[in-house]
UniProtKB/TrEMBL annotation, chains A, B:
UniProt feature coiled coil, ranges: none
GO biological process, one term: negative regulation of DNA-templated transcription
Gene3D superfamilies: 6.10.140.850, Winged helix-like DNA-binding domain superfamily/Winged helix DNA-binding domain
Protein name, entry field: BlaI/MecI/CopY family transcriptional regulator
DNA sequence: AGCGGGCTTCTACGTTTCGTAGAAATGATT
DNA sequence: AATCATTTCTACGAAACGTAGAAGCCCGCT
């Protein structure tokens, strides 16, 4: 469950997260070729990676149209929040972790956190 | 930098994090043998893992006394808070991540966070 | 219905990381 | 110097990932 992403897997997810629309493997291959200077994976490579990401639950595939369509299962933000909770959840001393976490955020973000906690409290 | 730990590496770190004192590889081997039912690694295995952890910056080694002494570089809590910051730092939309993060914590922890942010503000 | 070509799945190999530990080197102690 | 504890070197198997060719599948066209 504490799945980690490889480098190409991560790049693919970045594109899927950045796009509201579902994409085809061909779209992704082209984006990858354009973005990564030294790398331009074959279409089969992209499809393999997409299958793996599907198995890991990161990607949802639509088999209805013929070049299959892929989309991120959760938003990038959801995923990251989930990761943070995963870390926190594995701690024995959660308050100590939170204490250090809060101690290190910028004042700007501290203010944001206060706001978020405020609006959360009367709901 | 975003280093991930293997299973044995993690077990070793657990013991080091749990102990205030520095430990020898022999100590660790014994603890591992006692804790893990099916596993009891050779001393060389433990030493290999400790070297790798040292290279990764998780462990600090004292070569002064002859059975070398090992200690965790950072506390478990520091490490976890750091991990959380690492995740957050890699986000393009930090506030969106924080929003989801805060939205999912328990009321108890929300209260704790409010406190921490409070005491932080008049530091 | 058969065929051809795009699309997908299967299979496979190289690399890296980690668990594992013997062999070799080092160094202290008598 | 010889011996024994300790450390370092070297190596191999397994799993995850990047990589992509080979084989199979599906659909429109004639």
């Amino acid at each position: 469950m504490a799945t980690t992403l490889g480098e190409l897997e991560r790049s693919v997810m970045e594109f899927l997260w950045a796009s509201d629309e579902a994409m085809t493997a061909y779209d992704l291959r082209d984006r990858l070729a354009a973005a990564e200077v030294d790398r331009s994976p074959a279409i089969t490579t992209v499809l393999t990676v997409l299958s793996r990401l599907e198995n890991k639950g990161f990607v949802q595939r639509q088999r209805t149209s013929r070049p299959h369509l892929y989309r991120a299962q959760a938003s990038r933000e959801d995923h990251m929040a989930e990761l943070m909770h995963e870390v926190l959840g594995s701690a024995t001393n959660r308050s100590a972790v939170l204490e250090r976490f809060v101690g290190q955020v910028s004042e700007r973000e501290a203010a944001l956190l206060r706001e978020l906690l405020e609006s959360r409290s009367h709901r």
